[in-house]
Amino acid sequence: MSKNSLSKKLLLLWDKAVHGRANPQSFISIKDDNVTPKFSDQESFSPNEHYFQVRLNQVYLEFQREWFAKYDPVVLITTEFLYGGNLISIPFLVGPNIFENQKIQVPTGSMIFDTRVAGLHPYKGDRINIRVILYKIQRENAVRKILDLIENTAGVIDFSTAVSAYLKLADVLVDSIESLLGMGKAESILAFSKEFDPSGGDYLKESYYALLAKNDKDLNQDDLQVIDNRLCLASGDPYALSDFVLFSIRKSSDRNDVEQLPFYKLWEQALSNAMVPDDGHWKLAKSNLVSLYQAMILSHDLTARHATELKEKYVEDIKNRHKEVVELSLLGKSEQRNIQEFIDLLDLDIK
Q: N or C, which end of the chain has less CB nearby within 10 Å?
């Protein structure tokens, strides 16, 4: 499936969710002053310097809706952003298996987790659109098999380090959800879209957002706060007035999964050659480093700033490793080394 075709299918799912939703809802951006602990960096994202990720922090389900007795909850979050010069859509589904793995206590509703649903990806300065849909899906064996297929398919590949491969599997996820909708087994409870468009005056920064199944005009930003990734009232009590989804956008200057990125094998080749104490392998190691730097600069998974920092680190590391193996190779050979240095100094041709 092409990227455009996948995006169109996701938009159709979104349209169905919006038009099929019968429940009232509210969307509230949590004020920075109402977040505990505070964000360490309140500045906006800088293009080609920062990574972004979207996290699903919490889903609360009212017990009286008969969740888990008759219905399974499913959250579909789609993140649209610029990647490799193209606008792509990454869908991620949080279904029953994740809920059950969190060992949720059903009588008290569900207080979930903190899971990454998009990223880490370099922020390119273009618009980012996040669409959130909360479905309730009939709890039947046949339906559960489809949900298991969706979750297992989505979990095969890491969307952060293998975007292209993940997109090839994403159509299975979308088609399966469409099948459930066509069977009348799924109903959207919440559906909302949040876009950040720099050309429209928006700027991207770390923030929390709450999507509530409650249309309360008296509820505003001052009434809600986030404490340790959990939605609370101004009093500090947990929010439990309706179903809700809490998600956030987070920022990072680097990523700790570079070993999973495709270019990392070039670093391993360079290091392997540098660990051989002779000129031939040392030249190969330096050639590997050049190829590595080119791959990092051209990578869609690294910011330009991070690629430069990694290059400097790799160069220093490889020089130190090569120096160490050369010194180790000369242990116990000081006399031969001194003789060879004297011969080289005299430029004698001794065989």
A: C
pLDDT reported for residue 283: 95
Residue type, 171: D
- DSSP string computed for 244-281: EEEEEEEEESS-S-GGGSTTHHHHHHHHHHHTS-SHHH
Altogether, the residues listed in the chain come to a count of 351
Tell me which amino acid residue 276 is: V
Sheet strands (E) in the chain: 26-29, 35-36, 51-60, 71-83, 86-94, 115-122, 128-138, 186-196, 207-212, 224-227, 230-233, 244-252
The Cα 141–Cα 317 span in angstroms is 55
The answer to whether 169 touches 149, Cβ cutoff 8 Å, is no
How is residue 121 written in tokens?
């990806």
Residue 303 is encoded by which pair of tokens?
């910011």
Cα 187 to Cα 181: distance, rounded to the nearest angstrom: 7
One-letter identity of residue 87: L
Instruction: Give φ, ψ of 131 to 5 degrees.
Output: -115, 130
Order of strands across the sheet that contains 51-60: 26-29, 207-212, 244-252, 51-60, 115-122
Q: Is 191 exposed, middle or buried (0-12, 13-18, 19+ CB in 10 A)?
A: buried
* Edge-to-edge strand list for the sheet holding 35-36: 35-36, 224-227, 230-233
Tokens of residue 159, six digits: 């969307």
Lowest mean pLDDT among 47-56, 88-97, 159-168, 179-188: 159-168
For 20-83, the DSSP string reads H--S--EEEEPPGGGEESPPS--SPP-TTT-EEEEEEEEEE--GGGTBTTTEEEEEEEEEEEEE
Give which of 238, 236, 233 is closest to 110, Cα–Cα. 238
Residue 217 — pLDDT band, cuts 50, 70, 90? confident
- Which of the four pLDDT bands, split at 50, 70 and 90, describes residue 167? confident
What is the distance between the alpha carbons of residues 292 and 286, in angstroms, rounded to a whole number? 10
